[in-house]
Amino acid sequence: MATRKTPRSPRKSAKPVVAAGAYRRAHLALQEERNFSAAVLETAGAMVVVTDLEGRIVRFNRACQLVTGFTFDEMKGKSSWDLLLSSQERDERKAAYRRIIADGVTVDHENHWVDRGGTPHLISWSSAPMTDADGVLRNVVRIGTDISEHRRIEQELQRSESALRASQTQLRLLAAGLTSAQEKERKRLAVELHDDVLQRMAALMLELHSLQESKPATGRELVDRLAAVEDRLKALARDIRRTAHQLHPAVLGHLGLAPALKALCEDVMRQSGIEARLTVREPALHVSGDLALGLYRVAQEALDNVVTHSGAKEVRVSLGLRNGSLLLSISDGGRGFDPEEARQRGLGLIAIEERVRQMGGTFTLKSAPGEGTRINVAVPWPPKTDAPAEPTA
Ligand SMILES: Nc1ncnc2c1ncn2[C@@H]1O[C@H](COP(=O)(O)OP(=O)(O)OP(=O)(O)O)[C@@H](O)[C@H]1O
Ligand SMILES: [Mg+2]
Q: CATH number of the domain at 44-146, out of 2.40.128.110, 3.30.450.20, 3.40.630.30, 3.30.750.44?
């Protein structure tokens, strides 16, 4: 800018020189400030977009370009809602934009920007009106962050939290149910011991006492009565063994899973009349320890369900190996059921699921009304621990 000289007053003539220097310095400072702001704008992690009052883009920083795939030159003078907003959000955003201008207030909101490839990004924005030096509203500046990934993780967390809560509730139900089932079982055993075993022992003692007292007439009569006592003692021993076996299948520890399943199938046949057939696909397979006990309990519960609910005449149990898994399946051709509805009814199926989960395996239940039921359990084989632990329950 040109400087004016006034010869009459040297003091006065110095002033424009000072003013020109100050002006240049102010101009440079302003320029520096602008460069600094532009650099900050470009390198900021946040998205910054500045629009005029009609919504046309006048600034579109690097972060915006990275998210959308559009360059500033492509966006300059165009409106973001026509190019970047989905048609569903367009009208609502235009109305909100008009409100920012009319009310002159800062507004926080979220909307989706669809990038060049068609992928939507959820952006969290803060939009503020911007005035010039005279206080006239000229632009709207929006600062945003792409929160798509954050929201996705948040939703996934919520989903896994509710899945965790559901399984905790299931476990609580199971724990409560198992305690009451254990109580019932103890009561049944107490009744069996008291009313059955003790009564029968008392009767045998009476018989022996009466033998002592009554002095049988002949040796033959004595032999017959003693033989009868022996038969009753044998039956009693057999029943005590059966009860003990129900509490813990000793054969599991000695011979492994396959013979224990065979004995279980025989028990089912004897007690219910349902034909229970076991197929062991690898006769040399020896499953023992906790794994054997877990699978035995699964079969026990599944067979109990067949007896109680299926109405089937026959049930098939099979044990075999496939693709690094040990497979146990129990299938019947009975009345079947809707697995979703059955979930609330009892604890047997939940207990099977939980046991299989603890064994690191998978459980599948296939059933539908009128179409029978099939339970498949697959556990990793060979088991991880090479020294199988003793059965524990
Ligand atoms: N093999 C099956 N055939 C037909 N219905 C079955 C069979 N297995 C299970 N169900 C149905 O699924 C329901 C749930 O079975 P689950 O074993 O979980 O409980 P429950 O047998 O009723 O009681 P419990 O807790 O004593 O085992 C049963 O009530 C029954 O309606
Ligand atoms: Mg059951």
A: 3.30.450.20
* pLDDT over 50 at 5, yes or no: no
- Nearest CA to 300 out of 337, 249, 346 is that of 249
Q: Whose CA is nearest to atom 1 of ligand 1?
A: 306
Q: Which residues pair with 314 in a beta bridge?
A: 275
* Residue from 172, 195, 82, 215 nearest 354 by CA: 172
Give the SS3 label for residue 336.
coil
Distance of CA 306 to the CA centre of its chain: 29
Pocket of ligand 1 (CB under 6 A): 305-306, 308-310, 332, 334-337, 342, 345-349, 373
Where do the domains of the chain lie?
44-146, 248-393
Tokens representing 52 are 């005029």
- Which of the ligands is closest to the CA of residue 369? 1
User: How far is 203 from 197, CA to CA, in rounded Å?
Assistant: 10
- Cis before 259 (ω within 30): no
Which token pair is 81? 């809602």
Strands 373-380 and 57-60: unpaired
* Full-model pTM: 0.54
Q: Same CATH topology for 44-146 and 248-393?
A: no
| Cβ atoms 125, 143 nearer than 8 A | yes
Atom of ligand 1 nearest to the CA of 372: 3
Strands (E), 191-295: 275-280
Q: What is the CATH superfamily name and number for domain 248-393? A: Histidine kinase-like ATPase, C-terminal domain (3.30.565.10)
301 CA → ligand 2 middle, Å: 6
pLDDT for 123: 94
240: left (phi over 0), alpha (psi -120 to 50) or beta: alpha
Which residues are registered as beta bridge partners of 362?
A: 378
What is the pLDDT confidence band of residue 6, given thresholds at 50, 70 and 90? Answer: very low
The alpha carbon of residue 14 and the mean position of all alpha carbons in its chain are separated, in whole angstroms, by 82
